Amino acid sequence: MPPLQPEAAPLFHVIDPRVFDRAQLDDLCDLTTRVRLLAKHPEGARFLLGLLPDRRAMLYFVQPSTRTFLSFNNACHVLGIRTSEIRDPSTSSEVKGESFEDSIRTFSSYVDVIVMRTPRSGEAARAADLMNRIPRPVPIINAGSGQDQHPTQALLDIYTLDRSFEEQGGIDGKVIGLMGDLKRGRTVRSLCYLMKNYRNVRLVLIAPEQFALEPDIKAHLRENNIPFVDRARLADVLPDLDAIYVTRMQSEWDTAGETGRVNYADYSITSENLGRMKQTAVIMHPLPRGPEIAPAVDDDPRAVYWRQERNGMWMRVAILLKIFRADGVVRDFDISALN
What we know:
Layout: H1 22-39, H2 42-49, E1 56-61, H3 67-78, E2 82-86, H4 100-108, E3 113-118, H5 123-131, E4 140-145, H6 151-164, E5 175-179, H7 186-194, E6 202-206, H8 215-223, E7 228-231, E8 243-246, H9 271-274, E9 282-284, H10 305-323, H11 327-332
Parallel strand pairs: 1-2, 1-3, 3-4, 5-6, 5-8, 6-7, 8-9
C-alpha cells in the first residue's frame, strides 16, 4: 500500500501525565489493543509498517535504559519510522560545551519527534518549551526525566491494569498498593497522577519511612479526593490489595548508603506470601527488579510484569500514532477481515 500521508500534526508533547483525562486514557487503551491485535497477523503487521515510513525519530537516551529504549525503538519500527540514537553524551558535541538547548534544536533539524531520557529532572519540559518557541518545532516525548516523571510508563501501567481487570469492572473501585522506593521512583509519581481519572480507587503506600511518597504527590492525591494510607510493612495489607505495584530501591540516587539500611523482607513478594493475596490480584513491577520479587513468583499467574513490559511497546506505538494523527486509519481497519 502507498505510505499514509497524515495531516500536519499539531504539536503534541508527552511530558507530564497530569494532562491526560479519562476519555484520553480509555482512547489510548483501546488504540493499544487494536494495534496489538493487528500486529498478530502478517497483513496487519504490514499495514502498520506502511503507516509512517516518511517519519524519523531521535532516541536521546543519556541515562541507562533497557526496556524503555528498546520498546520505543521497536515501536518506531512497527510503524516504519526510522530511528537515530545518542546513548552516550561523550559522543556528542556536549563534550565540547554545546548547551542542552542547542543539542535539542540540532536534533529537531533532522527528525520529526524526539524521545528523551535524561538523569536531570525537568529537562524534557525544557526541551518542550524550546520547541514551542522555534520555527520548526517537533514533539518531545519524556521517556524519563530525573526523579520527576515517566509519563509513558504510567500510560502502559494503566493499560496493564485495565487489561488485568477487564472482567472485574476495570480500574474503578480497586485497592492498589504501591511499594518500595516511593520517594525517588518516578514511575510511582506518574502513576499517582493518573489515579484521579478513576472512581473510588484507594491507594496503599508501603515504604520505609525514609523512602515514603513525597509531600507534593500526597497533596495531589488529597486535592483529587483519592484516599490513601501509609503502611510500613506489606504483610499488614497484602490480603486487601487488588494490585501490588512493586518498585526497586533506587540505589543510583543514594547519597549516604540509604538503600543498604532497608530490610527487604518487609518490602518483597515471595512464594511464601503469595498465599495471602487475592486470587484475582495482580503483581506489577516497572523493572528492572532486585530482591523485591523472587524469581519463583514469575510462575504465578498473578505476576503480570512481563506482560506489562510487552505492553510498553504497544502503548508507545499508540502514542506515536496519536502524535502523527495516524490513529484514525488504524481504527478504520477491519480487524475481523484478517485470517
